[in-house]
């Protein structure tokens, strides 16, 4: 059959149902006795008892990608916010990201060679903030299309001399759809033509009403080029982050999302992962999208080798058998055999899907020619 209820699986394995439920919880799956388990969950549990599942296992990608993290409230600890910067082209996203990084990172981390890994962390008043510096819109759309949600707070950059433009509206829609709080950074305040009131007025039409006007959206005036207002902006991020009560359990096997990945001539598959819960360690057996392996080495945003990283931390890893995609989710397994089983199964499924897709394309080509 395609699936089994928890109780049925327990019977087949000759185990107590409560034991199976406990194991599932350990895997981040909240289950009751009558819950239908997908093949992946069945395989994971079976593998844990060294039982081979006989029939061919078809793993449902969506089950893996939409896994829910179930942790006990008592294990949850405050974690840094993950911030994405969005806005219209040329409104100053890159300049702002650089300004934040330069003012905060190099001061405290003298000698640290900053490295582009798609995300970085800074410390503001003792509190860590993680910034994604992959192009905001692309990251948002691909990740959300794949069911991943990595952003906690969106900074909407609007140039004070240009106002609301098409990609500003697009960014607002993305953030709203994802229910991510927005902080507006009104940029280029150093410019003569800067008109922050006009920006406020225009954003009101899109449901973002400034606190100054009785709404609940935080607006901060900045000049990314001069570095003005950056501290205020970071303070506001800390404030919103406190309100959101962002938490994760650092004491579990790591799960999270791929920020970016590519093939490196010398190092092979290189992937920047954002750890969303748990702690990722060198040597961990891991499944990343349809790839798998062991974490061979980890390098942080300062280009330093690290041995373990906790929640909300971006880190570049090597050791995967192939290159995963941005937005893929990853999961650490207790042993390498399990990681390999799940990884190979997912890889096979992906290849099958690709084969199907390409034969479909061939047919289409054929029809097009006729
Ligand atoms: P992005 O496309 O949103 O990443 O925008 P960029 O960061 O590349 O900035 C676009 C242009 O605006 C560049 O020429 C920047 O130097 C300029 N710029 C960015 N921020 C400011 C600012 O605060 N003041 C002024 N005057 N120019 C800015
Ligand atoms: Mg840019």
TrEMBL record:
Residues 78-247 form the Tr-type G domain. It comes from the Bacteria. It is found in: Cytoplasm. Residues 81-229 are annotated as: G-domain. GTP binds at residues 87-94, 133-137, 187-190. Residues 339-359 are annotated as: Disordered. Transmembrane segments: none annotated. Belongs to the TRAFAC class translation factor GTPase superfamily. Classic translation factor GTPase family. IF-2 subfamily. One of the essential components for the initiation of protein synthesis. Protects formylmethionyl-tRNA from spontaneous hydrolysis and promotes its binding to the 30S ribosomal subunits. Also involved in the hydrolysis of GTP during the formation of the 70S ribosomal complex. This is Translation initiation factor IF-2. It comes from Fictibacillus barbaricus. The chain holds residues 188 to 557 of 764 of the full protein.
């Amino acid at each position: 059959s395609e699936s089994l209820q928890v109780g049925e699986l327990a019977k087949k394995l000759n185990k107590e149902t409560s034991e199976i439920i406990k194991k599932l919880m350990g895997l981040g799956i909240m289950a009751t006795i009558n819950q239908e388990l997908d093949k992946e969950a069945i395989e994971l549990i079976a593998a844990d008892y060294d039982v081979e599942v006989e029939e061919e296992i078809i793993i449902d990608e969506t089950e893996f990608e939409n896994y829910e993290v179930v942790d006990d409230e008592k294990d949850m600890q405050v974690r840094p916010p993950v911030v994405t910067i969005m806005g219209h082209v040329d409104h100053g996203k890159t300049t702002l990201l650089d300004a934040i990084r330069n003012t905060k990172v190099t001061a405290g981390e003298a000698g640290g060679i900053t490295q582009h890994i798609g995300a970085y962390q800074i410390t503001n008043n003792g509190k860590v903030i993680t910034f994604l510096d992959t192009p905001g819109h692309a990251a948002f759309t691909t990740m959300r299309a794949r069911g991943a949600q990595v952003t906690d707070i969106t900074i909407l950059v609007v140039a004070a001399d240009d106002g609301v433009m098409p990609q500003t509206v697009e960014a607002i829609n993305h953030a709203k759809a994802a229910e991510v709080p927005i902080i507006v950074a009104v940029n280029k305040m150093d410019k003569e033509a800067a008109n922050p009131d006009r920006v406020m007025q225009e954003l009101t039409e899109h449901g973002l009403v400034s606190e100054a006007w009785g709404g609940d959206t935080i607006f901060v005036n900045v000049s990314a080029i001069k570095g003005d207002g950056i501290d205020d902006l970071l303070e506001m991020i800390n404030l919103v982050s406190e309100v959101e009560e962002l938490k994760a359990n650092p004491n579990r096997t790591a799960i999270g999302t791929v920020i970016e990945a590519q093939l490196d001539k010398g190092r092979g598959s290189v992937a920047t992962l954002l750890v969303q819960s748990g702690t990722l360690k060198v040597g961990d057996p891991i499944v990343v999208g349809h790839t798998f392996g062991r974490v061979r080495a980890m390098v942080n945003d300062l280009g330093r080798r690290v041995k373990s990283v906790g929640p909300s931390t971006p880190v570049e890893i090597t050791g995967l058998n192939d290159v995963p995609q941005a937005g893929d989710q990853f999961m650490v397994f207790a042993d390498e055999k399990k990681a390999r089983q799940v990884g190979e199964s997912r890889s096979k499924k992906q290849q099958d899907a690709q084969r199907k897709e390409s034969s479909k394309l061939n047919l289409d080509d054929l029809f097009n020619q006729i």
